[in-house]
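Class I glutamine amidotransferase-like protein
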Amino acid sequence: MAVSSLKSLRIGVMLDEVQLSDVVGIDLFGNLSTTYLKDVLAMDNSLSVFQEHAIEIEFFYLSTTLEPTRVTPGLRYVPNMTYDDCPRDLDIVLTGGPILTHRPASAAKFIREAWPKTRVWLTTCVGAMWLADTGVLNGLKATTNRWFLEGAKKLLPRVEWLDQRWVVEEKPFDGKGKGELWTAGGAGAGIDMIAQFCLANWDKKFVYTMALDGLEFSPEGTHGQFYLASIYGTKLE
């Protein structure tokens, strides 16, 4: 059973100590929700044609405690769920990229326990290195912020690190169907990756109208899955 067949989703967001831009792609999911559609119908009733596509979504904004938690550049958010209390069998988890010294034990426990039970796992920036530190990415293809790729290869050699804007890989999943791992490079690549994930799973007109066009996001053209130039700006053949 694919995510696209579900009429309700539970999405966990690991965003403590991350770059704020790493997790803004969550807004794309929010724009596909029944809650958002209900709000915008008051402004444009023609969007009622998308009611059959809208998704019931519950978001879990995670941290070690429920106290206000920092993301860069100094913004604080109030988590609504701790790592210890969060359900492990989520539909999607999005992991942003914190500094490499930020490795709460409760987050590592959550990752290891939720990994086989969660259908889709998305990472942006060095979020993939956070996952890799727990061992769950051993033997899998992944990517991370391009500037940290060589370091990732040295620090975490059991992962097959690829120089792409995002990488899609199958992951273990205890439920019906296949599990999916989507890992992205920097924050911009993460937004494009999430846009592509949405387009791959739900009605394209619905996704473009409710999420991509209004926010002016698009994973096409120069914003596709592969880099057009080397890290030093040299055009790739």
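thats it. The chain has a mean pLDDT of 93. Residues 187-201 form the longest helix (15 residues). bye
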